[in-house]
Amino acid sequence: MSVAEAKSSTNGVIRIARKGIVKFAFGEDGDEFPVDVRLVYDAWREVDWQLRNEKGELPSDKWVEHGQNRVAFVQNVVNNAYALLTSKDGVDREIPQVSGAEAIAFIDFVYEEVEKVHNFFSPKKDEPSSSPASQPEVRINFSQ
Asked: How many CB atoms lie within 10 A of CB 64?
């Protein structure tokens, strides 16, 4: 859909769909919480690459530490999500403890979801690329 089509079909308002927001739940009766998979993916990549070598490989002597980092990272995501849920509705919840296998599954699902919306987050290939230095300055002014 073009910008013009979007504006004409919504009285001039361009609506952005909730791309990349996916609900997760841990355990059979765990509470659902939304995750911005692109933000989580980017944050995990920073953690993941700290233990990799120049070739992007994970040395075998770093496997245990990498696994511990993965569990801690996912547990932090869950803790923050549950804190946000509680702040919204005031309901005290028991925060699930994330296992190693659950952490792997979560990261795998995040990767899958990011792949689904990859084209949304990537520049179109048919657009000419140019260096930031050759780009004109863009100023955005909002009126009240």
From this structure: 9
d(CA 144, CA 141): 10
Domain boundaries, given as residue ranges, for the chain? 19-121
User: Tokens in use for 74?
Assistant: 């996912």
Q: Which residues contact 7 (CB under 8 A, 6 or more apart)?
A: 13, 14
| Contact indicator for 90, 28 with CB cutoff of 8 Å | no
| d(C-alpha 39, C-alpha 61), whole Å | 28
The candidate with the shortest Cα–Cα distance to 67, out of 102, 100, 106, is: 100
pLDDT of 53-95, one tens digit each? 999 999 999 999 999 999 999 999 999 999 999 999 999 999 9
